[in-house]
Amino acid sequence: MTTQTPSPSAPTPGLPARQAALRMLDAVMRRGESLDVAQHAACQGIDERSDRALAMAIAGEVLRHLPGLDLMIDSMTRLPLADDAKARMVLRIMLAQTLVLETPPHATIATALPLLQGGPRKLAHGVFGSLMRAGVTLPAPELPPATAHRWRAAWGDAMVEAAAAALGTPPPLDLALADAAATDPLAAELGGISLMPGHVRLPRGGAVELIPGFEEGGWWVQDISASLPARLLGPSRGAHVLDLCAAPGGKTMQLAASGWNVTALDNSEKRLRRLRQNLKRTGLEAQTVTANLLEWRPDALADAVLLDAPCSATGIFRRHPDVLYRIAPRHIEERAEQQAVLLECASNWVKPGGLLVYAVCSLEPEEGEAVVDQFLAADSRFEIDPVRADELPEGVTPDAQGRVRTLPGMLVDAGGLDGFFMARLRCKG
Ligand SMILES: C[S@@+](CC[C@H](N)C(=O)[O-])C[C@H]1O[C@@H](n2cnc3c(N)ncnc32)[C@H](O)[C@@H]1O
To answer: Which residues bind S-adenosyl-L-methionine (predicted)?
Structure first.
């Protein structure tokens, strides 16, 4: 048997995944890109799916645990490393690898230290080695101070504690079913639970394509919170609904499955392609329109309009912890301005007596409650159509005005849910 020694120019095995993780983190923290977008460029040239998944896992875990990792690093340096120092980021990667992903320390050193080629490798090696010898363990996850401060002011201490706990808990995988009657059999088959008809929750994510029934298309992945806005329109017998800002189509599929005649509009052709693929897989139907909502006119007023407006997406921080580091107050302000304009536009396409549902997957009241309050104060054509408790899963209740706000801390024993805001408005007859 011969042993092959790697040629001196061969890359260290495992290094490309760490390089990609470093590039992704740089894109999120410096350029404000989302991890999903950053992943594409950062993983160029990495062929193995498992390496791309590892890069994503490392970057995600760094973001999930960042304040705690920084505390450890700072405990071992005489002077704190600059926030954006490469050595700090590499140390974060090393600690996340070993403490979260359970890579043995020697393998972490071999695969991550080369990221500091020509830089302070000795320092990083020393800090990491000292922390390992001290037997450090991972502290409980924490929100970044700016987010914690903002959410504490909006929702109180208990919400901030619940959000930090949610950050450290792998979120479950929710399936939305085309046929609500199939709920119990599917839950039994997949070993899941159901919180509402048409909903099945599996304990955690994984390769969705490998879940039995994926090819048959009887369900799609959708957090229970994200399924609530379309549920507020109820079933229909072919009435016309405009699903505005529709892609990739979770709500389009719900509406089509509930009997609505759906026109699904989005300004992103790329995202609409995914919507069409989703419709094809599930065998559901909708007309699709690629257009900027602000420049489009429908042929006729609709019986109902659903506006799932673009937002900061801070409500999905459990699955996308990068939002915690990308979203600043100025982004929230910009989004809120855009949402007000989109809501005003969408309201013009509702028939008298028809319904308008406004929704955002944001935990910022400026993008939810405030947008609807402002709209109603300026537009006397609409009034709130209060949501009833029996339209929601047990443990989620409408607010005093009949709007719905889902927060970390709700349904915790069942695995929690994403943060959403939604309101159902009626166009006065
Ligand atoms: C929150 S996502 C929609 C998610 C979708 N409703 C679902 O359930 O799968 C917001 C969408 O708004 C679209 N969008 C943003 N600005 C738009 C505009 N001016 N006109 C049309 N679509 C827009 C984005 O491309 C994005 O797909």
So the answer is: 245-251, 266, 308
Residue 311 is labelled as binding a ligand:
no
DSSP state of 316: G
Q: Give 90-103 pLDDT, tens digit per residue.
A: 999 999 999 999 99
User: Could you please report the per-residue DSSP string of 292-311?
Assistant: -GGG---SS-EEEEEEE---
Ligand 1: which residue has its CA nearest to atom 12?
A: 245
- Quick check: is 361 catalytic? yes
Taking the domains of the chain in order of start, what are their residue ranges?
15-133, 224-427
Q: What is the C-alpha end-to-end distance of the chain, expressed in Å? A: 85
**Is residue 326 within 8 Å of 314, Cβ to Cβ?**
no
- Omega of the bond prior to 212 within 30 degrees of 0, cis? no
The answer to whether residues 157 and 181 touch, using CB atoms and an 8 Å cutoff, is no
CB neighbour class for 82 (10 Å; exposed up to 12, middle 13-18, buried from 19): exposed
- Does the predicted TM-score (pTM) go above 0.80? yes
Identical topology for domains 15-133 and 224-427 = no
Q: Identify the CATH number of the domain defined by range 15-133.
A: 1.10.940.10
Choice among 43, 311, 345, 361 that is catalytic = 361
Read off the amino acid at residue 255.
L
Domain 224-427's class? Answer: alpha beta
